[in-house]
């Protein structure tokens, strides 16, 4: 529980900082498409930061490996999805864009595990 709360706090900080950097530091340096991709990375990082925090808080009520799995899949999704877009947006290196769907899959698995745990244990 504590680990996912800390990861949530860290990712919340990073999402705000990277969002500000994208809005102020990248403007005029990357294409509009790159800025849009950067913004999508920030949005998904923040959405799944909230998912990490909710997962951590629910862990006190639902004590199952499903919750731990959900938390890790959300965190891995942030790294793969948002991380790959943070690199792809300013560089345009397509290899990083091919990693992004793996992050999306991680997010989906996290949501399935969270939903299943809630249905089963609450």
What does this structure look like?
This protein has 122 residues and is mostly helical. It is 86% helix and 0% strand. It is built from 4 helices and no strands. The chain is elongated, with a radius of gyration of 15 Å. It starts with a helix and ends with a helix. The model has no long low-confidence stretch (mean pLDDT 97).
Main structural class: mainly alpha
Q: What percent strand?
A: under 5%
Global shape: elongated
**Percent helix among the residues?**
over 70%
Query: What is the distance, rounded to the nearest whole angstrom, between the alpha carbons of the first and last residues?
Result: 18 Å
How many β-strand stretches? 0
What are the SSEs and their pairings?
Blueprint: H1 2-24, H2 32-58, H3 65-91, H4 94-121
Helix pairs in contact: 1-2, 2-3, 3-4
Give a summary of the structure in a few sentences.
With 122 residues, the chain is an all-alpha fold. 86% of the residues lie in helices and 0% in strands.
Primary descriptors:
elongated, mainly alpha, 4 helices, 122 residues
């Amino acid at each position: 529980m504590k680990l996912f709360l800390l990861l949530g706090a860290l990712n919340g900080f990073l999402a705000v900082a990277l969002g500000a950097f994208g809005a102020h530091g990248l403007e005029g340096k990357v294409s509009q498409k790159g800025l849009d991709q950067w913004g999508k990375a920030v949005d998904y990082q923040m959405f799944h930061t909230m998912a990490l925090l909710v997962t951590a808080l629910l862990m006190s009520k639902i004590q199952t490996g499903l919750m731990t799995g959900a938390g890790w899949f959300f965190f891995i999704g942030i790294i793969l999805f948002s991380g790959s877009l943070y690199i792809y947006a300013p560089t345009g290196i397509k290899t990083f864009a091919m990693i992004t769907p793996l992050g999306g899959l991680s997010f989906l698995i996290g949501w399935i595990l969270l939903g299943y745990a809630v249905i089963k244990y609450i």
